[in-house]
């Protein structure tokens, strides 16, 4: 079902019904909600948006997943009740006209987007289409820090357009209070114009994934404790500080470190491992399909980022009952860890401080029950409830 601009009341009524009406009775009467992404490669924002789309589809809504390219690690995870629309262009910047045609043809009630250059493309397409679709842009990271020095001219232009185009969205959603504050300053907007909705991190199948076996000898029962890091091998994640902190901890006790992920900084990190003389106890296997299985078996999860939005991996580790430590970076870790009550916080880039909180957590870990209770705040159902409220 598609809605025209004057059908807002029908959307509101359908959203109210979603909490109690069985899926089978609603597929023909609920409005269509579309999600727009470039692709489904292994980024956190893509995974979050797919989880949100799946959760909304389970409530009975007709859901479209509009992709510039149907590619990426999560393509096989798209549920059968979500319709995939591939625009077929090579780059997001070239997809504006194709997305506008989709909006005119399908007229979804709402279009949700994530990532700055994708958000800008959607806003331009909405202006071009001139239909009643309500556009909701989501910001998943510290926008003032997130643009890479090597970013293309097109991406840089997208960031420059944020102050001018974001205010045209029906809703602007940040994944944490810190992200909202940063966006407020970057775009010169009023703080009240930005809503906060936490990511849908804890999924129904999470425990099953965490319980799956790991084909790695270090995670066998009775082995030396393992610290785990997960993320792109990039400057933002600052795994160099984690390696230096690990070297300090390793000097006083038997310990190992595994970092899951791939990225441009691999050679730099491998050289640092050799320089620190810790190669025998550090492994970087690259991207893995199921990092939850590693999280469920690690002795400690460590986040060493310079900045974040709302770090999904930190919440996932807590949902597995695994003790966590993190840098006190903007933004997310302090919110998630309740100021350090649920895991040690260290200053950004301070290897000695990170080593100290790692040692304290290994010696006196936070009980799993407290971590699991906090992770419950980030379930898919809670996120879907929040987004459906905002969709009104």
From TrEMBL:
Q: Which CDD domains match?
A: GT4_GT28_WabH-like
Q: Where is the Glycosyltransferase subfamily 4-like N-terminal domain?
A: 43-201
Concerning Pfam families, the annotation shows: Glyco_transf_4, Glycos_transf_1
UniProtKB keywords: Transferase
Q: Does the keyword Transferase apply?
A: yes
Entry-linked InterPro entries: Glyco_trans_1, Glyco_trans_4-like_N
- Molecular function via GO: glycosyltransferase activity
The UniProt record lists the Glycosyl transferase family domain at 222-375
* Name by which UniProt lists this protein: Glycosyl transferase
